[in-house]
Design goal:
There is one protein chain. By secondary structure, the protein is of the alpha+beta class. It has a single domain, classed as PK beta-barrel domain-like (M1 Pyruvate Kinase, Domain 3). Helix content is about 20%, strand content about 20%. It contains 4 helices and 9 strands. The chain has helices at about 55-60, 115-120, 125-130, 165-170, and strands spanning about 20-25, 25, 45-50, 80-85, 95-100, 100-110, 135-145, 145, 155. It has a 6-stranded mixed sheet. Strand 1 (about 20-25) and strand 2 form a beta hairpin.
């Protein structure tokens, strides 16, 4: 529910144990409520860096919607793949993440929407995602198969023309480009 109106959303995700099948349209058993902006071949999977979770725990506590030590479970930001060791500033469109049972190609950054505000529990969450640039990224399935929590992955460099964070800043109105 967003304010007083009901809105279809599949932003809430739960961590799974064991292998999950990866198909061209995403993870088996996962869903997207609004296929006009989520899902499809180029947005089959949404990955989010686990390194950003501390930030979101802090701002949720500052907003008064959680306690300082409340955990934020993997999937809380709407991602169906929480990664460690790969940030937007080091990820390029076209990079391939090779897991033991599948291969996923970085296709574009995730753009925040009003449903993200509801998921985080406060009205400025989308704006903070825009300002921080901590957006995560969508993945297209290069090689179907299976994936499992805790699996290592290797990064195969793509064409190295556009970084995820640069494309995000170009697409989000009012976000200044930062130099790194």
């Amino acid at each position: 529910m967003i304010g007083a109106r009901r809105v279809a959303s599949a932003i809430s995700k739960l961590a799974l144990t064991g292998p999950v099948a990866v198909r061209a349209m995403g993870l088996v058993g996962d869903e997207q409520a609004d296929l006009s902006v989520h899902g499809g071949l180029s947005k089959a999977i949404y990955a989010y860096p686990g390194e950003h979770y501390g930030f979101w725990r802090t701002v949720r506590a500052q907003a008064g919607v959680s306690l300082w030590d409340d955990p934020l479970a993997p999937g809380s930001l709407g991602e169906n793949l929480t990664l460690e060791g790969l940030l937007e500033s080091a990820t390029w469109i076209g990079d391939v993440l090779r897991f033991p049972g599948c291969a996923l190609a970085v296709s574009e950054p995730r753009l925040p929407c009003f449903k993200f505000n509801a998921a985080m529990g406060f009205g400025q969450a989308s704006r903070l995602m825009g300002q921080s640039g901590w957006c995560g990224f969508y993945l297209a399935v290069r090689e179907a198969g299976a994936i499992e929590a805790g699996q290592p992955f290797s990064l195969e460099p793509g064409p190295r023309e556009v970084r995820v964070d640069s494309l995000f800043r170009a697409r989000v109105p009012g976000v200044a480009a930062a130099t790194r």
